[in-house]
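User: Please predict the structure of the protein below. I'd like the answer in structure-token form so I can feed it into my own downstream comparison script.

Assistant: Understood. Taking the following sequence of 446 residues as input:
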Amino acid sequence: MAPFALDAWLRPLGARVVDGRLQLLCPTAFHRDRVRERFLPLIERQLAADFDGQADVELLVLPQPAGKPAVSAPASAPDRAARPNGAGRDAGASAPAPDRDRAAVQPELPYRFDNFVVGPCNALAREASLAIARGRQQGANPLFLMSRAGLGKTHLARAIAAEAGAAGRVVYASAETFTNDFTGSVMGRRMDQFKRRYRFGCRMLLLDDVHFLESRRKTQLELFHTITHLLDAGGRVVLTGDRLPRDMDGLDPRLRSQMAAGLVAELEPPDAAVRREILRRKAAAGGVRIPDACLELLVDSLRGSVRDLEGALIQLVASASLLKRPIDEELTRAALHKLSPLAHARVLDPAEVVEAVAAFFRTRPEILAGRSRRRDVLWPRQLAMVLCRRYTGASHAEIGRLFGRQHTAVHNAVRVVERALLEHAPRRYQVEALTARIESLREAGG
């Protein structure tokens, strides 16, 4: 590893072993997420090599020592860029006691309802989350939050945990942690401990990224019985995933049905107004003012997840600080270009994408929007839906209306196209050629 990466990301970590699991203690949630993304596979491979077996590693956020304010870095991209990397140097000395419930670190995280930016893309999910956190809506139990990565489902899940924590014991865990706990309990004959944690006395269970459980049949069965026990006992359950329950083919049908038995709420990519407000809040939280022209350039150029917005803001603020330059349009364009050469390219209108797809397949847009189910029409229509999703940032509902269909048709198109790209090389080559045409449209107007 490069020395600066070692000093910035690994030396601040504290470490302890609990029940055979290595727990790495991170100074902030942002630090934990960066270690998970960039270094965790390397750590696990090294441990497996050193100890001749599979490594069991868990990343936790280190609670703040008494008298110090809670770290609010993850809510502010500029603040993260400015904070010294040595904030967690004494992590090992101030680690919580080994028998402390891991859920206790969660209220320290800055995920709250009042700092969640609401818009049409996520209003239902936010209101449902607040209702179940306050025990107002039994019809939403269990609640399933669905979105692609980085759109806010974890923020809402942790906000629920913080809000509901005063009313009883709340357990928040990732599906990976649940799996590791279950596997370790079975192997160590400690199932009574596992059930004490996830069932008995638990008033609310929040399980993040349940798609991780696909193909893990025994863990799925245990989760099914755990959810059943909690619901029967009057507890509340919140689950998150990157697909609708019915689209998780690797899950047991009973578990899929159980997940969808309450309310399923989708978070879609943020529209321009939400992106603008997210950038404003994160910049203001870090004491940074972004000129209006630069802010609009970021809003128009970034159509992906909240993480994409955070990444661009970190890049921009860090560049300005290191180069000792004011934030202006030139620096903003340079920051966007470093993230992706096409990040500042023109955003396409859905109608343009549909026209490009129709021309590629030598048909007309009105035929793609028609009712025909012929194979030579169905495949271009599904592909046009997927490419609209990729290049325009329009919601599933907006794309569905363009084709005279419900948003579920767009979900189905995404699944069909993804499967076709994996299973049929000719389809893959076709999509690559079409994508190149659409990229040229973007560049031509950028």
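That's the full token string. Residues 64-109 have pLDDT under 50 and may be disordered.
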